[in-house]
Design a protein that fits this description.
Number of strands: 4
Number of domains: 1
Strand content: 15-25%
Order of helices and strands: HEEEE
Structural class: alpha+beta
Radius of gyration: 11 Å
Number of helices: 1
């Protein structure tokens, strides 16, 4: 997947955009994939920000 240059820089800086499919687990945590780079994202109910999750490195 090729992202536009400005979005590619945003993903490298940690500013990801969740895709259209968001799954909510039994604890209320939302899970999605970045629509530009495809990394796994999560969002807790108490934190109003998407953060990178899954296998890193």
């Amino acid at each position: 997947m090729t992202a536009p240059p400005d979005q590619d820089a945003a993903c490298r800086a940690g500013r990801h955009v969740p895709g259209g499919r968001i799954v909510v687990d039994q604890h209320g945590t939302r899970h999605a994939h970045c629509r530009h780079c495809g990394c796994a994202l999560s969002r807790l109910q108490s934190i109003r920000r998407w953060y990178r999750s899954g296998q890193l490195g």
